[in-house]
Structures are given as C-alpha cells and as structure tokens.
Specification:
With 78 residues, the chain is an alpha+beta fold. 15% of the residues lie in helices and 38% in strands.
Length: 78
C-alpha cells in the first residue's frame, strides 16, 4: 500500500466553491463541510466552509482541508 501523495492535482481541483468534503479522522468535529467561498489574501488562500449538520461557518486553510478532509466523490457542485 502506498501513502497518499500530498500534492494530488485531483484533490486540489476539488478546492472550489460548492464541493462537499467529508472528515477522514476524528469524530469530534463536523463530519462534512461544504466550501462556500474561497478568500484570497496576503497570507494565502482561506476557505469559508459550512458544516452540513450544524450550519456553522468558519475559515480554514488549504492545509487543514487537505490533511483532515477528503472530497466526496459523489457530491455535485453548486
């Protein structure tokens, strides 16, 4: 079994508005989030995400999304 690559072009393409990402570890946080908006700033890209169960919104960096979540393959974009 090979370890997943950190830079996977298919996963980076999924970092867009409307895509649903599901949590791959830890059950204490939201199990799935939807990317609502991409915010570009001097510090880098941040993503406004919304939890599907609670509706809570917060900003997340791309490193957090890539490390903690996986894009849901069957989820259509908005």
């Amino acid at each position: 079994m090979t370890a997943p690559r950190w830079f996977d072009p298919d996963r980076y393409r999924q970092l867009s508005e409307g895509v649903i990402w599901v949590r791959k570890c830890s059950k204490t946080h939201e199990s799935a989030v939807r990317i609502m908006k991409c915010v570009n700033s001097r510090v880098g890209n941040r993503y406004l995400v919304q939890g599907l169960t609670s509706g809570r919104q917060w900003l997340v960096g791309h490193a957090t999304l890539l490390a903690s979540y996986e894009p849901r393959p069957d989820a259509p974009t908005l």
